[in-house]
């Protein structure tokens, strides 16, 4: 037996890599396309072409800047993830890079370029949405009307329909991850916890995303179906997002109350789905009910919701 092992090893000539704290335990992103390749000699030139205007936000081990291309005066958003970020954040940025390279939709934020800086930071140059997020819009201008929400829902559903058709599940749909510009164009962003499915109906039950917008089956798989598909989880999150933009606060909690994990789990898993106040249209009420079915198999798909009277 010892002789057989030696001969097999000599033919293969392969050795499994050792798993260490210094070796990444996540898959590397897809190779860049030709127009995305950046050599070390051109990295400093690329950075020098842009002037930083201001910081748009911090979080998840990185910073987002508003930058201007010096020659053309075109404005972009530059997302920089620092080299010393923890492995989880690095894994998320590699996942986001892979998805951004795959997507090409007017309802998904556009990525123009990805490059690694000399200090190890990773930079993603994206289109700039001048009104920020729907979360910031809610804080500055107040709640949205049904007519505006119908337009928002239609755009987000077009984005989700595109992503789901390409076997991509976002897993973190919420007002903070939906970008908007002055023309009220809405685009899906932040794919750090998204998943590319190998097959359309693969299981997608990892506990990721913002817990407030998680569907009941994500909190309690045993009670709400352990073999659910993740696409319906995006629809649940969309329903809560639409309700929050209409009510002005997170639907499962009274206005001003800060959510905690235990309260959210009890409300989402054991409570009734949040209801709309009197005075809303039957179409909007029906749309929310189609999104917030606790049984994930009864939720409408993005394609079905696009034909709902509220969106039409």
From TrEMBL:
The keyword Phosphoprotein applies. PROSITE patterns: PROTEIN_KINASE_ATP (PS00107), PROTEIN_KINASE_DOM (PS50011), PROTEIN_KINASE_ST (PS00108). It is an enzyme of class 2 (transferase). It comes from the Eukaryota. Residues 50-311 form the Protein kinase domain. Keywords: ATP-binding, Kinase, Nucleotide-binding, Phosphoprotein, Serine/threonine-protein kinase, Transferase. InterPro entries: Kinase-like_dom_sf (IPR011009), Prot_kinase_dom (IPR000719), Protein_kinase_ATP_BS (IPR017441), Ser/Thr_kinase_AS (IPR008271). One of its GO terms (biological process) is response to other organism. ATP binds at residue 79. GO terms for molecular function: ATP binding; MAP kinase kinase activity; protein serine/threonine kinase activity. Its EC number is 2.7.12.2. The keyword tRNA-binding does not apply. It catalyses: L-seryl-[protein] + ATP = O-phospho-L-seryl-[protein] + ADP + H(+); L-tyrosyl-[protein] + ATP = O-phospho-L-tyrosyl-[protein] + ADP + H(+); L-threonyl-[protein] + ATP = O-phospho-L-threonyl-[protein] + ADP + H(+). PANTHER family: DUAL SPECIFICITY MITOGEN-ACTIVATED PROTEIN KINASE KINASE 5, DUAL SPECIFICITY MITOGEN-ACTIVATED PROTEIN KINASE KINASE 5-RELATED. Belongs to the protein kinase superfamily. STE Ser/Thr protein kinase family. MAP kinase kinase subfamily. This is mitogen-activated protein kinase kinase. It comes from Artemisia annua.
């Amino acid at each position: 037996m010892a002789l057989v092992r030696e001969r097999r090893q000599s033919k293969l000539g392969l050795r499994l890599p050792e798993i260490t704290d210094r070796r990444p335990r996540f898959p590397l992103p897809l190779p860049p396309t030709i127009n995305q390749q950046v050599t070390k000699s051109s990295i400093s030139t690329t950075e020098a072409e842009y002037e930083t205007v201001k910081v748009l936000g911090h979080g998840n081990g990185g910073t987002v800047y508003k930058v201007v291309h010096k020659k053309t005066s075109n404005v972009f958003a530059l997302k920089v993830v620092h080299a010393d970020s923890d492995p989880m954040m690095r894994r998320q940025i590699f996942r986001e890079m892979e998805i951004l390279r795959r997507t090409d939709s007017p309802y998904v934020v556009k990525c123009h370029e990805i490059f690694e800086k000399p200090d190890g930071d990773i930079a993603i140059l994206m289109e700039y949405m001048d009104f920020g997020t729907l979360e910031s819009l809610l804080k500055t201008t107040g709640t949205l009307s049904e007519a505006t929400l119908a337009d928002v829902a239609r755009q987000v559903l077009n984005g989700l329909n595109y992503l789901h058709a390409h076997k991509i599940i976002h897993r973190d749909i919420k007002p903070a991850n939906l970008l908007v510009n002055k023309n009220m164009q809405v685009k899906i962003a932040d794919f750090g916890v998204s998943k590319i499915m190998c097959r359309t109906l693969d299981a997608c039950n990892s506990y990721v995303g913002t817990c407030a917008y998680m569907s009941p089956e994500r909190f309690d798989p045993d009670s709400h179906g352990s073999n659910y598909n993740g696409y319906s989880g995006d629809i649940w999150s969309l329903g809560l997002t639409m309700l929050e933009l209409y009510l002005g606060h997170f639907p499962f909690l009274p206005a001003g109350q800060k959510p905690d994990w235990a309260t959210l789990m009890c409300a989402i898993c054991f409570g009734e789905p949040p209801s709309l106040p009197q005075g809303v249209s039957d179409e909007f009420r029906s749309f929310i009910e189609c999104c917030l079915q606790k049984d994930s198999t009864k939720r409408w798909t993005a394609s079905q919701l696009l034909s709902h009277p509220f969106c039409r």
